[in-house]
Design brief:
The complex is a heterodimer of chains A (about 220) and B (about 260).
Chain A (H helix, E strand, L loop, with lengths): L7 H40 L4 H16 L2 H11 L9 H26 L3 H9 L4 H31 L11 H12 L3 H28 L9
Helix pairs in contact in A: 1-2, 1-4, 1-7, 1-8, 2-4, 3-4, 4-6, 6-8, 7-8
Chain B lengths: L3 E12 L2 E12 L3 E6 L5 H8 L7 E6 L2 E2 L2 E4 L2 E4 L2 H8 L2 E4 L11 H11 L5 H14 L15 H13 L5 E5 L7 H17 L3 E5 L3 H7 L2 E6 L2 E6 L1 H6 L4 H12 L1
Helix pairs in contact in B: 3-4, 3-5, 4-5, 5-6
Classes of the chains: A mainly alpha (about 220), B alpha/beta (about 260).
The structure holds adenosine-5'-diphosphate and magnesium ion (MG).
The site of magnesium ion has 3 residues of chain B, from helix 1.
């Protein structure tokens, strides 16, 4: 039998440090998802453009981003972009990479959410002469949002779980820190287990939150003032 | 003001290979009330949808209050209308839909104030006061804060009418506005249209299967078949002495239902 000699003292020692590093992870996730939401919405709207060049460009951008590994995108932004004068901190690079990558996925979610709103709602908006901006803001998106919550939430949780990839560009997030702690103390069991547990707890909490949000979300949408 | 509120001038409309209108002509006078009857698929809705800019045309010209709807003149040459032109033209038109198309996430009041506030730039107070007045007109002043899902079909459709009126159109397009209603709710909606007709302030085109109502309210009835006006005239003539075989067939099939 394999023996686990769990060292509680060491675990308690590294936990606060890991939780500190977790803030970095959360920061990258939060900023990354904000960017992803903006990018996703933008792409979804561009894909509905009546100008074919615009909608095709948005489509191919989405396909391109979804078909290349996140890690390649991260490396590209961190090592290649500076050659074009684009110097960014690891955090900034990570946020942009995550935002663009998951923005491409979210655009599909948003697009099908928007498509799910009945044709009659668009026609009523035209008949009332509402501008495209008002139509999206007041009529379409408030009704589409509910159907977008579960899938968007899952992508954001997926993004959260991908943040260790940012250790590849020296961002001192949880996994990177655990690795350092492990190699300094010649003990990997406690730091890596704790990292796994922190991810588990936060992911479960987030998916419960998403389910609650969906359930409590008004069935027909909401109205902005 | 021009004599005609609406003119279709040699209009062609295709859906793929299906040629619906060919050299289609129709003129409707100011404040005229025209009922359009005809079997399903004859192009009644498409006619209204072209006017509401929900469908384009392939050839010919549509004029609304004397001005071309789908074309605009630039340096003396005609060209397809841009969004700004369409936006301006739509200001003349209001549409009420068969399936209401109310905004389900907005209160009745907000359904009615949304466009006046954000398109006409009315203040919240003005839009609200106007909406309450319109709700009184359609007999729903106590439903201002209700959501559409809390209303009966007849009530929904009366909100639909109030919402269209709030934009102060000169032309009202009514597409089978009672077809989705339970029979006992039809009259409360038609009553509102009766009131509007009595005001004599709108040009109205109504697509309808309520023959008795078409007969009572219309200045003119047009019988449509396969994208053509087969027969038109005052209601007494169409309903009492239809000249065309197809009109007779349609009306008798209708009465036997
Ligand atoms: N969006 C569309 N695409 C293809 N065909 C259409 C479309 N809208 C209407 N049509 C066709 O045009 C014809 C007239 O339709 P419509 O104007 O809805 O008739 P009505 O309202 O008299 O029942 C029908 O044959 C219908 O199939
Ligand atoms: Mg129809």
């Amino acid at each position: 039998m394999i023996e686990f000699d769990w060292d509680w003292a060491f675990a308690w020692e590294v936990l606060p440090l890991l939780l500190d590093a977790c803030l970095i992870t959360l920061q990258a996730t939060l900023l990354g998802s904000m960017l992803a939401i903006v990018m996703g919405l933008l792409l979804a709207l561009l894909r509905r453009s009546r100008w074919k060049t615009v909608s095709y460009s948005a489509y191919w951008w989405m396909e391109f981003v979804r078909s290349t590994p996140l890690l390649v995108q991260i490396y590209f932004l961190y090592y290649v972009a500076p050659e074009w004068g684009l110097n960014m901190s690891p955090m900034m690079t990570g946020v942009i990479a995550l935002g663009m990558h998951y923005g491409a996925y979210l655009s599909e979610v948003f697009r099908s959410g928007i498509d799910g709103v009945g044709k009659g709602q668009w026609e009523a908006s035209i008949a009332l002469n509402l501008s495209p901006y008002r139509t999206y803001r007041d009529v379409i998106l408030p009704q589409a949002l509910r159907s977008m919550i579960p899938a968007s939430g899952n992508y954001i949780i997926a993004m959260f779980k991908e943040t260790p990839q940012l250790s590849a560009i020296t961002l001192l997030e949880m996994l990177q820190l655990a690795k350092i702690m492990g190699s300094e103390n010649f003990r990997y069991l406690e730091p890596f287990t704790l990292v796994g547990l922190i991810y588990l707890v936060l992911s479960l909490a987030a998916s419960t939150g998403i389910r609650l949000a969906e359930r409590r979300f008004p069935k027909e949408g909401f109205t902005l003032s | 003001m021009t004599d005609y509120a609406i003119e279709f001038d040699k209009v062609t409309k295709r859906f793929g290979d299906n040629l619906l209108f060919e050299n289609f002509d129709l003129k409707i006078k100011q404040n005229e009330i025209v009922s359009i009857i005809g079997s399903s698929g004859s192009g009644k809705s498409t006619l209204l949808r072209i006017l509401m800019t929900l469908e384009t045309i392939d050839a010919g010209m549509v004029r609304v209050q004397g001005e071309s709807l789908w074309h605009m003149q630039k340096n003396g040459a005609w060209q397809p209308a841009n969004e700004r032109h369409l936006h301006r033209m739509r200001g003349q038109l209001g549409m009420v839909f068969q399936h209401f198309n109310l905004f389900p996430h907005m209160t009745v009041l907000r359904n009615i104030t949304e466009a006046p506030m954000h398109v006409l730039g009315q203040s919240k107070e003005t839009a609200r006061a106007q909406a309450l007045e319109l709700l009184r007109l359609v007999g729903l002043e106590d439903k201002a804060d209700a959501f559409p899902s809390e209303l009966s079909g007849g009530q929904k459709q009366r909100v639909g009418i109030a919402r269209a009126l709030a934009m102060k159109p000169s032309i009202l397009l009514l597409d089978e506005i009672t077809s989705a209603l339970d029979p006992e709710l039809v009259d409360e909606v038609l009553e509102v249209i009766r009131k509007l007709a009595a005001e004599d302030a709108f040009t109205m085109i109504l697509v309808t299967h309520e023959m008795y109502f078409a007969r009572e309210i219309s200045d003119r009835v047009c019988f449509f078949d396969a994208g053509k006006v087969v027969e038109e005239g005052p209601p007494e003539q169409i309903f009492n002495q239809p000249e065309h075989e197809r009109t007779r067939a349609f009306l008798s099939s209708f009465l036997s239902v």
